[in-house]
Amino acid sequence: MTSEREVLSYERFGESVRDLAQTIADDDYVPDLILSIARGGLGLGMGLGYALGVKNLSVVNVEFYTGVDERLEMPVMLPPTPAAVDLSGMRVLIADDVADTGKTLELVRKFCADTVAESRTVVIYEKPRSIVAPDYAWRRTDRWIDFPWSVLPPVTRSDVAPGDAAR
Hints:
This protein is of the alpha/beta class. Helix content is 23%, strand content 33%. The strands form two sheets. The protein has a six-stranded mixed sheet with strand order 4-3-2-5-6-7, sandwiched between helices. The chain has a two-stranded parallel ribbon with strand order 1-8.
């Protein structure tokens, strides 16, 4: 991995959603459900839902990253997970922010495989080492990506002095 970073602004994120939606529409793929991988895929799934006119959205929680370029050995699906019967016979679009190793997409695809009619994957970024080639990717990069929603530290209360107990 290079030391340079790919920086995605909120404005470019909006462009990526519209571009991906157009690509999916041009491909004549009409999903019955968009399944977002939390947390990174939530914004993409919501944006694609609006752009493609899909109101049926769901979320699956997967933990994999523990820091910058640090991850668990394998991704882990966290509860609650969508009931497989809810996906039965559907065309599902699986949305995530990045296909880095591809292991998260692979886990969610396998989760869906036995019940859905068809699943396709969409990401904002695809990395060359991904073991899954997403069906739709906005950009390809080998850099670490600074997403606008995760580059800053969590917000804390501003009215509490350091060392004071939260009210």
